[in-house]
Structure formats: structure tokens, C-alpha cells
Amino acid sequence: MSAVPLLKVSDVSKFYGSRIGCRNVSFELYPGEVLAIVGESGSGKTTLLSCLSTRLMPTSGIVEYHMRDGQYRDLARMSEAERRFLMRTDWGFVHQNPADGLRMTVSAGANVGERLMAVGDRHYGNIRAAAGDWLRRVEIEEDRIDDQPRAFSGGMRQRLQIARNLVTSPRLVFMDEPTGGLDVSVQARLLDLVRGLVHDLGLAAVIVTHDLAVARLLSHRMMVMKDGAVIEQGLTDRVLDDPREPYTQLLVSSILQV
Length: 258
Ligand SMILES: Nc1ncnc2c1ncn2[C@@H]1O[C@H](COP(=O)(O)OP(=O)(O)OP(=O)(O)O)[C@@H](O)[C@H]1O
Ligand SMILES: [Mg+2]
What we know:
Blueprint: E1 7-16, E2 19-29, E3 34-39, H1 45-52, E4 60-66, E5 72-74, H2 80-88, E6 91-94, H3 108-118, H4 124-137, H5 154-166, E7 172-176, H6 184-201, E8 204-208, H7 212-218, E9 221-226, E10 229-235, H8 236-241, H9 246-257
Parallel strand pairs: 3-8, 3-9, 6-7, 7-8
Antiparallel strand pairs: 1-2, 1-4, 4-5, 9-10
The protein binds adenosine-5'-triphosphate and magnesium ion.
The site of adenosine-5'-triphosphate has 12 residues, from strand 2 and helix 1.
Family: Belongs to the ABC transporter superfamily.
Keywords: ATP-binding, Lyase, Nucleotide-binding
InterPro entries: AAA+_ATPase, ABC_transporter-like_ATP-bd, ABC_transporter-like_CS, P-loop_NTPase, PhnK
């Protein structure tokens, strides 16, 4: 891991009117590091992820990103065009519902190829070859390249969404409950795939999940949220094996007893 953080998050809060979304969250994320955000429903996980990924503007606090040119940029001070460019190139965002992250009425190949075109690739043959290669990497038969995601199963759609996000070699990927809508056997396989890709590509990732098994499998570090605040954070194995906060202990034990 590099010595310089990719993301620096300082005292981020988001209020929806008088309701707290998340409050006073600070952390740093390093290149190649996978951070899991866990906590019960309504604890602020999606709100925080949205603030990090510029989908929401924090009410207060600063999120800085280490650009490829070596500069830190305050995301709130970027132009809309700059933010969109980051989203299309350096970042990926994997939605819980694949339909939110795919174009359902264009082919699988176009879903992947479109991102390459967005970073300036114009050669049809290269784009199609890269798309086919990525379909293979996410275990979709290459002869499905001209099918629309509408004709795919839920697990295939999620794998296609992952291919679409990773084809541009992003440095940072945000995932909100990436296995949430899938049945258990499909989840396990997808998690294996995500773990392999994140490792092989040296990706940094922020993964929101309510499932501690997902955090255990994918993340190096985790943050536990409650009522909008981070109440415990640390290395994933430490937090899960030796939780310090009573709330985390409850979370860990209640999951283990299921
Ligand atoms: N658009 C919104 N307007 C008003 N309040 C909101 C909005 N989005 C979220 N909230 C509130 O912010 C708090 C945190 O919600 P958030 O969606 O971040 O939780 P979460 O941890 O992602 O929950 P879940 O596991 O159910 O997805 C909740 O009290 C929620 O009601
Ligand atoms: Mg959520």
C-alpha cells in the first residue's frame, strides 16, 4: 500500500432538514484498501457513501481525493464536469439494484464498451474485444455479448454491472450492498469473484453492507455505524473477533446466533 491516502474524509455530516443522515465521520482510505461500512438499517451507511461519492453534498465537512496528477482536490469544489469525469474513469459505483447501474435496453457488450468510449477509446474492434474479455472475467459467456441485460438473471446482471465499472481500471469503487438482492448461493460466488478482482486489480473500495460475513470476506478495515455516527472502527478481524463497543458486540453476537 502506498503511503498517501486516496481519500481523506474530515468531519463529514449530512442532515436531511433536522434529521441526521450521518455525523462527524472522519477516516482515510489508502490505495488498495477495502473498507466495509456496516450497521443496522437507517444507521447512515448509504448517506455516508453518497457523500463520499459526490451523489450527495455533505452539510459540513470535507472529502478530498488524491487525483492521478498527485493533487488533493476537495470534491465539493469540483465542477460538475470534473466530477462526472471522475465517476466515468477513476471511480466505479456498483448499485445494489443492477438496473440502477446498467442500461437495460442496450447490449451487454455496449454496457461495458460505453465506459471505454467515455475515456476516449474509439476503435470498435478493440472496444468489442475488451468487452468480451471483461464478460469472460465476470463469468458471462461471450456469446451473450449482444444480449440485453433484461435477458440476464439477477446474478448475471450484477456481474455485468461489475464488468462495466471495472473496465476503465478505476482506482476506487463504491459498492452499496452489492450482493443484497441475490440468493445465497449466487451471493457466495459473486463475493468470491469480487474478492479476486479487487485483489488482482489492487482496487480501493468502500463497501456498504449489513452482512458481517460480506465485511469479513472482502474488507481489510471496517467502520460500524449507529444513528449516523461511526461508533467503532478498526481492522476487520479485530472488530469482528474482539469488538470493543457494546453495540458492536451485540451486532456480532446476534449475527453469529442466526
Ligand atoms: N432523502 C432523505 N430524506 C430524508 N431523510 C433521509 C433521506 N435518506 C435517508 N434519510 C434518513 O437518514 C438516516 C440514514 O439513512 P440511510 O439511508 O443512510 O441508512 P442506511 O444505513 O443506508 O439504511 P439501510 O440499511 O436501510 O439501507 C435515516 O434516518 C433515514 O430515514
Ligand atoms: Mg442503505
